[in-house]
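Severity: low
Component: inverse-folding endpoint
Summary: output formatting inconsistent between runs
Steps to reproduce: submit the following structure tokens with default settings.
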């Protein structure tokens, strides 16, 4: 069975988005039906972006306050909770600021870790069930390692054993898809992150630095500013490299230090060829 899922991981500024887009184009050139889902995708099939979790009592309260709004079109009602895709809702109509704030405070990425984890695992299970019968190859950027570690490591500073157990549970769920994880690596974390800071909007840089340093991991270690963020990224990279050794499926590490388009294209073509033959790049 060919790989039905490619996971693109790496630190911010490593080049994973560009690599994921290039891989998508090359697979499509091979007449492979391919769908790319990058960070921030409101329609991600295995993750949640700008989705609020409401208990049934909170949902009743919300509807009583904002009954005139067509929120039901953007809500999934389960036995004991409701999920509201509030950015999708906002894209279709004007949403009162109070309503939006109410939902943002209950974003799935603001939940307690155990509840968040249970929702994410259910989402992965539903995706795999669908993907197994679809004639589609999927490419996911950052939702396998980065997003779980953003919650477990950065936000809550949980023990490494807890984080490893979480990643291993996701890995077990997706293994039937014969996944291939591409880790876009940067040896010099400081250099690649400072490059990203120069190239991206100031709003992104300020938001990223403040988030990383104001969550539990950074606060517990008195880390601040860009230098503190770099220290946190270095710790995250060390953990990611450690986790890669424990996964039950194929891992390929792409060294992207030079950000060379030609090198990337050649490497990805080899990856696709070796995926078809189910061998590793080191054997090709």
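Observed output (run 2 of 3):
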């Amino acid at each position: 069975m060919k790989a039905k899922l490619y996971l693109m991981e790496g630190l911010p500024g490593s080049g994973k988005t560009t690599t994921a887009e290039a891989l998508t184009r090359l697979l499509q050139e091979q007449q492979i039906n391919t769908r790319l889902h990058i960070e921030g995708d409101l329609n991600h099939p295995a993750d949640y972006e700008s989705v609020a979790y409401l208990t049934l009592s909170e949902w009743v309260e919300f509807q009583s306050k904002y009954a005139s709004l067509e929120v039901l079109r953007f809500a999934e009602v389960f036995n004991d909770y409701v999920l509201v895709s509030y950015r999708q809702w906002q894209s279709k109509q004007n949403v009162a600021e109070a309503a939006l704030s109410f939902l943002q405070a209950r974003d799935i990425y603001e939940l307690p870790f155990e509840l968040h984890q249970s929702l994410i695992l259910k989402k992965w299970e539903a995706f795999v069930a669908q993907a197994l019968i679809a004639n589609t190859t999927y490419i996911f950027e950052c939702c396998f390692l980065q997003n779980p570690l953003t919650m477990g490591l950065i936000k809550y500073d949980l023990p490494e054993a807890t984080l490893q157990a979480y990643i291993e549970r996701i890995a077990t769920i997706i293994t039937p898809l014969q996944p291939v994880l591409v880790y876009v690596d940067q040896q010099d974390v400081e250099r690649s992150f400072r490059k990203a800071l120069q190239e991206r909007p100031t709003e992104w840089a300020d938001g990223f630095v403040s988030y990383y340093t104001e969550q539990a991991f950074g606060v517990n270690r008195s880390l601040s500013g860009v230098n503190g963020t770099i220290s946190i990224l270095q710790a995250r990279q060390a953990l990611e490299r450690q986790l890669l050794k424990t996964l039950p499926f194929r891992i390929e590490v792409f060294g992207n230090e030079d950000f060379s388009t030609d090198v990337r294209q050649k490497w990805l073509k080899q990856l696709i060829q070796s995926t078809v033959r189910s061998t590793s790049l080191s054997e090709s």
